[in-house]
Amino acid sequence: MQSKWLEWAQQIQAIAQKGLLYSKNAYQIEDYKLLRNIAAEIISNHTRIEQSEILDLLVQEIGYPTPKVGVFAAVFEDDKILLVKERSDGLWTLPGGFAEVGESPGEVAVRETFEESGYEVKPVKLLFAYDNNNSKHGHTPFLQGLYKLIFQCEIIGGSPTPSIETAEVDFFTENNIPQLSIRRVTPTQINRIFEHYRNPNLSTDFD
Predict the structure, then answer these.
(1) At a CB cut-off of 8 Å and minimum separation 6, what does 128 contact?
(2) Helix, strand, or coil here: 135?
(3) Of the ranges 27-31, 138-142, 149-153, 185-189, which one carries the lowest mean pLDDT score?
(4) What is the DSSP string of 91-108?
(5) How far apart are CA 38 and CA 31, in angstroms?
(6) Looking at residue 204, what DSSP letter applies?
(7) pLDDT value at residue 99
(8) Other CB atoms closer than 10 Å to residue 40's CB: what's the count?
């Protein structure tokens, strides 16, 4: 079950961010800044990260508060799934990353897969659209909120090529999945992706 303190901190931060966006009253602006400081203090007390570091991140969040979007690719070859090994933690995940302004979700999947694995792909189906912070998915919660999209993609070219972000590129059978980077993808999600692969008639999973 997701910790209530994080949910409270996120809600307080969202209220503060909206208030700072729309308020023209100097006194109200100071109150919203105080709320933002309280959100940072809550997070700091539960994570042992300096409050000033957290506040620096929150201050960068401007405009109306909405979740970020991460896009990932599920690529198969000979009944094996493509995974990349992250240099940052030495764990494996689907190729993917944050959506960029000006790109469609499918274009993000194509770009991220090529950048992280060296393979050229085309999206053929949206498998998942879910809230990363929903406790049922088992991820580490993302402070600003995060929606994840996972596309099934087909290889149309390229070759396995590690990058500045990835140390290894390989394909794995369902029964031989390496240690995963849980904040990016979970074993349950990998198993469900294989179910989609075996049964193309399954509808998109969401929420």
Answers:
(1) 148, 149, 150, 189, 192, 204, 205, 206
(2) helix
(3) 138-142
(4) -EE-SEEE--TT--HHHH
(5) 11
(6) P
(7) 95
(8) 25
Q: Give the span between the Cα atoms of 177 and 180, in whole angstroms.
A: 8
Residue in this structure with the two tokens 């209530």, named with its chain if needed: 4
Residue 181 · residue 139 · CB < 8 Å:
no
- Give strand ranges (E) for 87-182: 92-93, 96-98, 119-131, 146-158, 166-172
Q: Per residue in 64-115, pLDDT tens?
A: 888 989 999 999 999 999 999 999 999 999 999 999 999 999 999 999 999 9
Within 10 Å of residue 202's Cβ, how many Cβ atoms?
13
Q: What is the radius of gyration, based on Cα positions, of the chain? A: 19
Distance CA 93, CA 187 (A): 10
Can you list the alpha helix ranges (DSSP code H) found in the chain? Answer: 4-22, 26-47, 51-60, 105-117, 187-198
What would the two tokens of residue 155 be? 């290889």
Say which amino acid occupies 29.
I
Q: Given pLDDT bands bounded at 50, 70 and 90, which one contains residue 139?
A: low
Cβ neighbours of residue 145 closer than 8 Å, sequence gap 6 or more: 10, 65, 66, 67, 68, 131, 132, 133
Gap between the Cα atoms of 31 and 27, Å rounded: 6
Global pTM? 0.80
